[in-house]
Give the backbone structure.
Amino acid sequence: MSHVQPAFDGMHLEAPAPAATRRIVDDYEAWVDEVTPYYVAAADTGQPFTVDAVARQHQLPDPPLPKTQWGSLPGRLLNDGIIRHHGYGGSARAKQSLVHVWIGVPAAHREAVARRRREERAAKAAARAAERRAA
């Protein structure tokens, strides 16, 4: 076996274009705006789903930082009253991983659910602030 690197004449240096199925969006808010309608549509079906299953089904792009920003999307949808936790299931991508399974909140109840979540978060924040003042 030779350890000499072959000389390239520049004819074979073309790289294939990145796959369109997993492109990365540069702006996080633009990414959220692009993918949210797909999750709202999944919620409207009334069937349980995982974030990854919807992303794979519709070939959604990745956020700017895929390892950390996929996890914040369900929180936004939860706070907006679009989805609620349904249970746990296996990941299609990593067969042994446990992931959250979500289900949609009926459209007529979404605003009430979002309002209640805002009030709960505000009450928790006020309780923490009171705790800090007392300490």
The chain has a mean pLDDT of 86. Strands lie at 83-90, 98-104. The longest strand covers residues 83-90.
